[in-house]
Amino acid sequence: MENKLVSLKDVSWRREGRKILHDIDWEIKAGEHWAVLGLNGSGKTSLLNILAGYQFPTTGDVNVLGYEFGNSYIPNLRNELGIFSSSLERFSETLDFETIEEIVVSGEFASIGLYQEVPAEAWEKADALISKFRLDYLKGKEYRYLSHGEKRRVLIARALMNDPKLLIIDEPCSGLDILSREEILLLIKEITEQQCHVVYVTHHIEELTEEITHVLLLREGEIIGKGPKKAVLTDELLSKTFKLNLNVHWEDERPWVSVKKPLNI
């Protein structure tokens, strides 16, 4: 795909007869880091599931990291992807009694829990990630004793164990306080410095740090805007996406919004 990491052409997806995604055309090229923005129910999760190969489109063509859906063995794709989602915390019965080292190294095997002997080089790699993400003070500590923010940072480190070419980060700051949120956002720079491309999914505009270069806006399964960050994050397109009269302003290459009245629902 030359320098294209992701190519979606005329992609639609239906569930129980209802169209969730409508005619999605989207490309991610080398050197780009994307955010996907939209309200809850806008189709963000469905789009992510297609990118990760967890569901196939009803119509359209998908190619992710050179894997053409319908003509490639998609489980191999997941060896080249990193996926973080706070939904992983539903496996807390397993995670709670593991140390952070065990959780991070399990990313090498894409497993929840360790079920095989771990080679020494994998432990060394996990240790390097723990240090890079400033988690050394948690070594030897079980997951259940961590704060919500610490848990997210550990799980993001885990997602990088297989040196993914593309890391999907799904709402990592959901439910966090301001300090914990900013600690998570600091990791985006660390991730991009590892030559890893990012797809960052959120409905909070202020989470888009300067490392994010491009934005895709979704509303009710349709693309409202896509392209370079400053060209897409306009008052008009954001207001249409979020069904509110919004005003965007920028501080240190980071967007912030305020709500104008009357509402535009």
Automatic annotation (TrEMBL):
Q: Which residues cross the membrane?
A: none
Which Pfam family, any one of them, does this sequence belong to?
Answer: ABC_tran
- Keywords from the named record: ATP-binding, DNA-binding, Nucleotide-binding, Transport
Q: Does the keyword Transport apply?
A: yes
The membrane-topology field of this record reads: Peripheral membrane protein
Q: Which GO terms describe its molecular function?
A: ATP binding; DNA binding
Q: What is this protein called?
A: ABC transporter ATP-binding protein YlmA
